[in-house]
C-alpha cells in the first residue's frame, strides 16, 4: 500500500501532469488513460483499472471535478479530493488528475495517451461527449479500448440503493444542509464570530473523576464485583465545563458559582482562570461535589456520587444574585443558567435569576441535568436544552407527542426555542409559530411581539455521531455552543446544528475535556463534504493537560 507521501505525489496538477507525460513519452513509456467520476470505487472499477494498466507502462486516471458531475442532486457523494486520494491508494495507478472541465476531451487532446480505456457499455454509445473524447484520442494517434464487461457494477446504482437503504435521519441531514442559513461556510463564519462574546454562566461546579480499573473479579466473601483502580483522572464538570467550553471557543466567560474554602476549590479556580475564565465564587459548603465513574477499558461499570446536601439561605441567595448582577455589569452577549440539581437553585431562585438576567443580556439560555422541576421555573429564556426524558418528567407528560410537550413548555415558560435531545436519534429544534392572520371579524390580530398564540415548528437534526464513545458532557457542549451561536447572530436551526456538531465531537472522547474548535470545524466539513453518515473512529486519548485527581 502506498504511503501518505506517495499517495500525495500521485495527485498531479495540470502543469505537473503534462510534464510527466512529456517525460514518459521521451522515455518510450506507453501511457494508458482512464476517465470517470469514480464516486464509489467498487470491484468493477478495480478490474477495469487493472485491465487498463496491463495495456501500458503508466496508468493515468482523471476524475470529473465536483462541478462537472451531472448525475443528479447530491452527486458526487464523495468530494473530488477524497475521490482522487482513493484512486491514488491503488498500486496499479501512477497518476491521478482532477479535471475541472465538463468532459475529458480537452484533456485527452493535451495528454495524447497511447491508449484510452472505457467500459464495455461505451462501445456503442452515441453520446456526443464520448464521441468528442474518442475523436481527440484518435486524432493524436492513440487507440480507444473497451474493457471487459464480465463484472458489472454501477456507482450510480449503488448510491441510489444506499439512498433507499440508509436511515432517514441521514437523508434529513442532507436536506438541512441545503438551506441558505445552514451552508457550511455560513456556520463556520458563525463559529468564528463567537470570539470575544461576553457570556455569564451561573451554576453548580462538579468534579468528574474517572477511575480506570483492572479486570473486575468476584469477591470471595460474596458475589460482588471487585475493582482495583490503577489510574485516576479528574475533569472540571458542571458549570465549570460550560465555562471552559466557552473560553476554548474564543468567548469571554465569567463563571458565577458556589464553592467551599478548600485547596481543591482554589486549584479549580486557578485552573479555570488560566484558561481565560473569570471566576466569581461564593464560599459555601464543605467540599466540591464529585462524581466518580469506575471504568474497565472504556466501559463504565459503576458510578458513585459524593455530594453533600446543600441549600442556600436567604442571605446566600441575595449574595449570589448580587454577584451575578456585578458579573453582567453593563450587559453581556449571553448568559447560561445551568442547574445540576446540587442545591444551588430552588424554583424561586431560578425565577429571580431569570428576571435579573433577562433585560441585561442578549441571549439567555438554560439547562438542567436530571429529572427536576427547575426547568419549569426558567422563564422568558431564548433557549433551553433539555433531554426528552427531562422535559417529559418536568411536565408529567409521558404519552403525549413530543411537539405537544414542547408546546406546553414553550407556552408556559414563554421561552423562544428549545433543543430537545433524544440520544442516538439526535435532537429537535422547536420554535413557536406566530399566527399569520392579519385580523378577522372575530377580533383583532394578535400582537406581532407575541409568538405564543399558535403551535410549534420542529426541525429534526439527526445525531452527527450516533455511536458516542462517552456521552458525558455532550449536553454541556451542545448548550454552550448553541447559545454562543445565537449570540453571534445565527438562527435557531444553524445554532442547533453547530451545537449538535459540538456534542458529536465531544462524544468521541473519554472524559470531559474542553472543546477544540478545530475539531468542530472538522466535524462540519467532514459531514457536509462527503454527504455520508459518520461514526467515531477511535477513542481519542485524554489530553495530558488534564489535572490528576488528588
Write structural notes for this entry.
With 550 residues, this protein is of the alpha/beta class. It has helices at 4-10, 14-26, 43-53, 80-88, 105-111, 128-139, 155-165, 168-176, 184-193, 239-248, 263-274, 314-328, 347-357, 374-377, 388-395, 402-413, 474-487, 492-506, 517-530, and strands at 31-36, 58-64, 95-99, 115-118, 143-146, 198-203, 205-213, 217-218, 225-226, 229-238, 252-259, 278-283, 290-296, 299-306, 332-339, 361-368, 383-384, 418-421, 427-432, 456-461. It has two domains: 4-164, 3-Layer(aba) Sandwich (Rossmann fold), CATH 3.40.50; 173-435 and 444-530, UDP-N-acetylmuramoyl-L-alanine:D-glutamate ligase. It is 37% helix and 21% strand. A six-stranded parallel β-sheet has the order 12-11-6-15-16-17, sandwiched between helices. A five-stranded parallel β-sheet has the order 3-2-1-4-5, sandwiched between helices. It has a four-stranded mixed β-sheet with strand order 10-7-13-14. The longest helix has 15 residues, at 314-328.
What is the topological layout?
Elements: H1 4-10, H2 14-26, E1 31-36, H3 43-53, E2 58-64, H4 80-88, E3 95-99, H5 105-111, E4 115-118, H6 128-139, E5 143-146, H7 155-165, H8 168-176, H9 184-193, E6 198-203, E7 205-213, E8 217-218, E9 225-226, E10 229-238, H10 239-248, E11 252-259, H11 263-274, E12 278-283, E13 290-296, E14 299-306, H12 314-328, E15 332-339, H13 347-357, E16 361-368, H14 374-377, E17 383-384, H15 388-395, H16 402-413, E18 418-421, E19 427-432, E20 456-461, H17 474-487, H18 492-506, H19 517-530
Parallel strand pairs: 1-2, 1-4, 2-3, 4-5, 6-11, 6-15, 7-13, 11-12, 15-16, 16-17
Antiparallel strand pairs: 7-10, 8-9, 13-14, 18-19, 19-20
